[in-house]
Amino acid sequence: YVVRRTKQGLLPVYTNLRNGGSRVLTTIKRIEGDVDLFVQELVATKPHLATLIVKYKFNIITIKGNHRENIKQWLAEKDF
Fold first, then answer.
1. Is the distance from CB of 28 to CB of 13 less than 8 angstroms?
2. Alpha carbon 65 to its chain's center
3. Smallest Cα–Cα separation from 50: which of 41, 15, 22?
C-alpha cells in the first residue's frame, strides 16, 4: 500500500466535525493498494484504534475521535 500526499505535499489525514461538533471523525484518504494491510499495520502499532474504526472502503478509512496528529506522525515515521 501507498499513501499519496496531496498536491501541496501534505499527508491526507483530516478531522471532520459532525452533529454540530459533538461527533469528531478522523479520515485517512488517498490510500492505494492493500487497504486491509494498511489497517492491520495501523492497529498493530496503535491497538486502541481497533474498536474505533468506523469503516474503510473506497480507499478511505474513517475513525471515531480526533487522531489526526497521531496518525500523521505514524505515516511520517513510515516515510510516506
1. yes
2. 11
3. 41
For residue 57, pLDDT over 90 is answered with: no
Rounded Cα–Cα distance for residues 35 and 17 (Å): 24
Long-range contacts of 45-51 (CB under 8 A, 24+ apart): 45/74, 46/70, 46/71, 46/74
As given in the structure block, the three cell numbers for residue 72 are 500523521
Q: What is the DSSP pairing of strand 13-18 with strand 2-3?
A: unpaired
Once rounded to an integer, what is the mean pLDDT over residues 20-49? 92
Q: Would you say how long the chain is, in residues?
A: 80
- Confidence tier at 54 by pLDDT (50, 70, 90): confident
Nearest of 55, 59, 66 to residue 18 by alpha carbon: 66
